[in-house]
Specification:
The protein has 521 residues and is an alpha/beta fold. The protein has two domains: 275 residues, Metallo-dependent phosphatases (Purple Acid Phosphatase, chain A, domain 2), CATH 3.60.21; 196 residues, 5'-nucleotidase,  domain 2 (Alpha-Beta Complex). 31% of the residues lie in helices and 29% in strands. It contains 15 helices and 30 strands. Helix 2 packs antiparallel against helix 9 and helix 11 packs across helix 15.
């Protein structure tokens, strides 16, 4: 049956109205699309971290003068550059042992950094020196998780900042090394957990209008990974692990730039800005460039400034640290053949500065091969002459059983005057070198108490031995309390101890007693 005419006409009207509405919506959409504006911004983030030495290494890589050249080129190619240092600068180095890192803060000022985040080594000289160095900085210092003893923000240290780059607001949030309490000497300064503060900093920066969030952190890899998983930042620029690493998981870009300015990592952000009706949408994509500073000539101005500090260090190296009242002999036959007063002096210094129960140094680590007469002054240059390898002072946790094994390895070839022969502090070792290797230790005591195999002790040594060098393989299986990323230079540790003791008189104390077997051989 046909529809009534009135019903048919109503349907026609409804269809016409619908078509008109659709046309109107299309016109509005086209008008909106035509009013949307798009533009592209290229931003480069430059990262350096863990720079201890101001000069290049033996392969021509690293040092502040070469870093300065990289920065100068990058800024010439693109005015939109943000340069950051992710921590560890004022220590450890020989010169920092002289001026407590003042030279590094001064030189870093010439790099025009946009942010510096303190690393654990910034606290090596205590809280007051840390505050002094940061107050001297000519660049922003960011550490949102750091407070003074009263839970107050430290003067001059910011939690974050926003930089406007061609209309893009980039929020920088900084987090210092939260484990500095155990890895350095921050005194009563307080550190909160880095991941806990990231969401608060991101919210604060977003509220302030930040389009892109960049976290600059000094943190070990497990914290880096936690930050990446949290997706609380667009970009994370990290220091501490001495690794060369870049990554991107589709949400967060990550970079770390190894150490000593050997490499500068550039994160190039291709940013697209879409503005529609007063609303702004920002999207981006990262591209990574690892810049090898060995390919760059030194920046002349920075090289000249570095040379001034090098000359100053050379002068300081010759300044007396202490005077010995007894004869010190570092010739091979002495330090590799038995207990030696200079071995006792250096091992005692290492033990005292680290607070370890015991200390062991290898005779082969002494390279001065000279005699210091009673009354001779010892300088940093003398310490460097004796310990020229740039070793670090590690602290390990060892059981008494492990220490027995270490000493067996140390004396395995003792009759041959090898470099493995130990110089010790805190221990008395009786050894019979006529026995087969592995069976030579007669007794070991801690003062007047026998070493207990089941007890846990702390042992200070150099990183060479800690890695199993000179046959000390048992040390490879020990726990590192102070290791690669937080250890100080061995020569600096010993020099600083000697500087606090104007007169020393080391002597033989029967710390190592070489016994002869009564059994027929």
């Amino acid at each position: 049956m046909p529809f009534p005419v009135s019903t048919h006409l109503g349907a026609v009207k409804m269809l016409a109205i619908a078509r008109c509405l659709m046309l109107l919506v299309l016109i509005v959409l086209l008008a909106s699309a035509s009013s949307a504006q798009e533009r592209n911004v290229n931003l480069t983030l430059l990262l350096i971290c863990d720079i201890y030495e101001v000069g290049a290494n033996s392969k021509g890589r690293g040092g502040l003068a070469k870093v300065a050249s990289v920065f100068r080129r990058e800024r010439a190619q693109n005015p939109n550059v943000i340069a950051v240092h992710a921590g560890d600068a004022i220590s450890p180095s020989l010169l920092s042992g002289v001026d407590q890192g003042a030279h590094m803060i001064d030189l870093l000022g010439d790099l025009n950094l946009d942010a510096f985040v303190p690393g654990n080594h910034e606290f090596d000289f205590g809280p007051e020196v840390f505050k002094s160095r940061m107050a001297e900085a000519k660049f922003p210092v960011l550490a949102g998780n750091l407070r003074d003893s009263n839970d107050q923000v430290i003067d001059g240290i910011l939690a974050d900042r926003i930089i406007d780059i061609d209309g893009i607001k980039v929020g920088l949030a900084g987090f210092t090394a939260e484990d500095s309490v155990t890895r350095s000497s921050p005194g009563d300064l307080k550190f909160s957990a880095t991941p806990n503060g990231t969401f608060a900093s991101t919210a604060r920066l977003r509220k302030a209008g930040a389009d892109i969030i960049v976290q600059v952190v000094h943190a070990p890899r497990d914290i880096d990974m936690a930050l990446i998983r949290s997706a609380s930042a667009d970009v994370i620029l990290s220091g501490d692990d001495h690794d060369l690493l870049v990554s991107y998981d589709g949400r967060t870009a990550f970079a770390e730039a190894m150490q000593d300015g050997w490499y500068v990592v550039a994160v190039d952000l291709a940013i697209k800005v879409t503005e529609t009706g007063g609303n702004k949408r920002v999207s981006w994509w990262p591209n990574f460039r690892v810049i090898d500073t060995a390919d760059f000539a030194a920046d002349p101005a920075m090289a000249e400034r570095v040379a001034v500090y090098d000359a100053r260090m050379s002068e300081q190296l010759g300044s007396p640290l202490t005077r010995t009242k007894t004869l010190l002999d570092s010739r091979n036959a002495m330090v590799r053949g038995g207990e030696a007063p200079i071995g006792n002096l250096f091992a005692d210094a290492l033990r005292a500065r680290t607070g370890a129960d015991f200390a062991i140094l290898n005779g082969g680590g002494f390279r001065g091969n000279r005699v210091y007469e009673p009354g001779a002054n010892l300088s940093r240059r003398d310490v460097l002459r004796e310990l020229p390898f740039g070793n670090k002072a590690f602290v390990l946790q060892v059981s008494g059983k492990q220490l027995y094994a270490v000493l067996e390895q140390a004396f395995a070839k003792a009759e041959n005057l090898t470099g493995a022969f130990p110089q010790v502090s805190g221990l008395t070792v009786q050894v019979d070198v006529t026995r087969p290797p592995g069976q030579r230790i007669v007794s070991v005591s801690d003062g007047d108490k026998p070493l207990v195999e089941s007890s846990a002790y702390t042992l200070a040594t150099n990183d060479f031995l800690a890695r199993g060098g000179d046959g000390y393989l048992a040390l490879q299986k020990t726990k590192r309390i102070v290791g690669d990323t937080d250890a100080r230079l061995l020569a600096d540790v010993i020099s600083n101890h000697l500087a606090e003791n104007p007169d020393v008189a080391p002597k033989l104390e029967q710390r190592i007693i070489v016994a002869r077997s009564r059994e027929p051989q």
